[in-house]
Amino acid sequence: MEANWNKTAAASHDALLKDYNAKQAWQKNNAIDFYSTRLAYLKEVMANPAPHLEISWCTRFNAFVPKNNPFNYALPGTKTPNVTYATDNEGTYFWP
After folding, report:
1. pLDDT value, residue 67
2. Is the pLDDT of residue 71 over 80?
3. Domain encompassing residue 15
4. 42: closest CA among 9, 17, 19?
5. Residues 33 and 65 in one domain
6. Angle at 57 between CA 54 and CA 23, to 5 degrees
7. What confidence tens digit (pLDDT) does each residue in 14-69 have?
8. Distance of alpha carbon 77 from alpha carbon 4, whole angstroms
9. What is the pLDDT of residue 58?
10. Residue 80 — very low, low, confident or very high, per pLDDT cuts 50/70/90?
């Protein structure tokens, strides 16, 4: 990964820019904040060497699940599994 750090960041930047440029004017107006922020971030990534550790995040629908309703994130009528996910309540390991 370290050897391809800049190349990968540049490819991500170029693909995102291509995606933005392919949009219609009204779509660009609605999405400019996302694209401009992301493109600026990727330029910063390209300007720096590969970090020792890159911290990122993603939304976790099941990081904190109520014990009395473990599938509270499932839509009504959705078939739920017989057991909960192994990752349910992982958020409590870091933030009780």
Report:
1. 86
2. yes
3. 2-47
4. 9
5. no
6. 100
7. 999 999 999 999 999 888 888 999 999 999 999 998 888 767 666 677 888 898 98
8. 46
9. 67
10. confident
Give the residue carrying structure tokens 């409590």: 92
Q: In terms of residues, how long is the chain?
A: 96
Task: Kindly calculate the radius of gyration of the chain based on its CA atoms and give it in whole angstroms.
Answer: 20
Task: Give the burial class of 53: count Cβ atoms within 10 A of its Cβ; 0-12 exposed, 13-18 middle, 19 or more buried.
Answer: exposed
One domain, residues 6 and 43: yes
- Cβ 91 vs Cβ 58: under 8 Å: no
Q: Are residues 66 and 72 in contact, defined by beta-carbon separation less than 8 angstroms?
A: yes
Q: 18 or 75: which carries more pLDDT confidence?
A: 18
Based on the fold, state whether residues 61 and 96 are members of the same structural domain: yes
The answer to whether the CB of 85 falls within 8 A of the CB of 64 is no
Say if 18 falls within a structural domain.
yes
Q: Nearest Cα to 45, choosing from 20, 3, 13, 1?
A: 13
Q: Is the dihedral of CA 57, 61, 66, 67 positive or negative?
A: negative
Q: Are residues 8 and 35 in the same domain?
A: yes
